[in-house]
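re: ur question from earlier - yeah i can do the single chain one, its not a big deal. heres the input i used so u can compare w yours
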Amino acid sequence: MYKSVVKPLLFKLDAERAHHFVFDNLRRAAHVPGVRALLRGLYDYQHPSLERTVFGLKFANPVGLAAGFDKNAALTDELATLGFSFVEIGTVTPRPQSGNPQPRLFRLPQDEALINRMGFNNDGAPAVAAQLARRRNHQLIIGGNIGKNKDTPNAEAAADYLAAYDALAEVVDYFVVNVSSPNTPGLRELQEKKPLIDLLQQVQARNLARPVPRPLLLKIAPDLTDAQLDDIIEIAEETHLSGLVATNTTIGRGGLRTDAGHVAGLGAGGLSGRPLRERATEVIRYLHRRSAGGLPIIGAGGIHSAADAQEKLAAGASLVQLYTGFIYEGPGLVKQINRSLVR
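and the output i got, formated as tokens:
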């Protein structure tokens, strides 16, 4: 029903407006008696063989929702009814920010892709932490994806990441340091070896000073060279990271079916969806091989089917995340992936 009825209606709306429409209505529906049980019956799928322990956390299944969908942790209880074992909230910055001017989210239906330049729009770490403190479903694993505010110079970025970490440390199960979004000016410069080591060392020192440290991961771009990926592995080992998220959106526009003039007219932003599948898998496979399987990887990028998820896992990912595929294929995709893994 999603692809034949719901999706055509949503795709008549502006992409960001459709996103808020889904949020509002899922929240309302979840308050109707019996709806949460109905959603679980339709979309949740459990089996002992799906369970896995990754960086010390036990996941009911390997399928999660990537950062960017529920930026402010407003729908974690509702999303738990759709079969996800974990949801990564954010990207969360220390202070609230409105993000880039609209329009800033665009569909490319011919490519089953999105272009976004949201710009870390979120309510700020204290407000997100308060929202998470009110959640009822504590079986759902929550990842906290953190970043810096747009107006914070890179030289002072560590203070922003530490502030976001401190605000969320009691309410998330793992952290992801995001230095790979293309939509905050200068942010990707933090992926260079020296600034990245400096940043991660400071966040990790704060993390390890806690009675119970949280797993700390790094989210990387698909546009890195092999030499840069080798640096990432060295950095992960040197700063004792628990794992990587591979990959974020790409700034590339190669191989698209959509008219090049139309794409150019949409302007800057990160591309996600089917066109990213192959490159994201290549990055996962490379990282897995070069780290001799010693570095857990959350695989993301172009997962639109059960076969796509299996491809990421076969390449070396321990877990997978959906975003654009969830929008194009609907909530049934989670169940499809988990059922295929059991079969």
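The domain at 2-342 is CATH 3.20.20.70 (TIM Barrel). not sure if urs matches, ping me
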